Amino acid sequence: MVEHLRSALARERGSMNEVTTVAVLVGSLRKDSLNRKMAHALASLAPMDCKLAIVEIGQLSLYNQDLDADPPPEWVAFRHAVKATDALLFVTPEYNRSVPGVLKNAIDIGSRPYGQSVWDGKPGAVVSVSPSLLGGFGANHHLRQSLVFLNVPTMQQPEAYIGGAGSSFDADGKLINDKTRELLTAFMAAFSSWIDVHRTTTKPPSSK
Ligand code: FNR
After folding, report:
1. What is the rounded distance in angstroms from the CA atom of residue 138 to the CA atom of residue 206?
2. SS (H, E, C) the chain
3. How many Cα neighbours within 13 Å face the side chain of 30?
4. Would you say residue 1 has pLDDT above 90?
5. Looking at residue 14, what is its pLDDT?
6. Are the CB atoms for 24 and 43 separated by under 8 Å?
7. CA-proximal residue: ligand 1, atom 18 (nearest)
8. Model confidence over 12-38: pLDDT tens digits?
9. Given ligand 1 and candidates 35, 128, 130, which is best to mutate, with the most ligand atoms within 8 Å of its CB?
10. What's phi and psi for 169, nearest 5 deg?
């Protein structure tokens, strides 16, 4: 039944030449970040009608509730950029078994002012990437805890804990691990279907 609904929605979207836009939030600011490289790989592996674009978070000052009445322009621009997209893809390292502060800061900024969260109802997915073999499992699940509260319907399967990522890219940042490419291709196909189902049920009809 769900499969039937998914393919009907995909057919409808295809016939309308609709493009799905996905905001990608990368949890590392490092120049040679493995997570950023993985975000680029995910963009190239996504289905044709699914366009991924990184929304930068390194420029965001630390969240301070005192500024809600008159927020810094970069917070406003960030909120607009996220709001304008159909879905969310978090690609994050693990810092001390949790999410890096820079990503948590972006999540907090997007969640306020109270009642105006830009995350609310947007379908999402999480990829964690680490040179270690655990693949950032702790960060992946810690992030999911916030996403439950923020009402982001987050894809459960397939999971993506990408371990051993230190050897996954060539000198030009191209993904060279065939197994990871296979997994991420399936992941993006599943996520595209997930978005089709969940944006229909979470967006008001007038905004479609
Ligand atoms: C790490 N790293 C790390 N790795 C991990 O698998 N589990 C962890 O808990 C931590 N903790 C941690 C804390 C801090 C402060 C740093 C700087 C690093 C290592 C981390 O996975 C590694 O540096 C990755 O390369 C970071 O991702 P990017 O920057 O390559 O995308």
Report:
1. 38
2. CHHHHHHHHHHHHHHCCCCEEEEEEECCCCCCCHHHHHHHHHHHHCCCCEEEEECCCCCCCCCCHHHHHCCCHHHHHHHHHHHCCCEEEEEECCECCECCHHHHHHHHHHCCCCCCCCCCCCCEEEEEECCCCCCCHHHHHHHHHHHHHCCCCECCCCCCEECCHHHCECCCCCECCHHHHHHHHHHHHHHHHHHHHHHHHHCCHHHC
3. 11
4. no
5. 52
6. yes
7. 95
8. 555 556 899 999 999 999 999 999 999
9. 130
10. -125, 150
Residue 88 token pair: 């969310």
The fraction of the chain above a pLDDT of 70, given in percent, is: 88
pTM above 0.90, yes or no: yes
Pocket of ligand 1 (CB under 6 A): 28, 30, 33-35, 93-97, 130-132, 134, 136
Q: Which two tokens stand for residue 134?
A: 């655990």
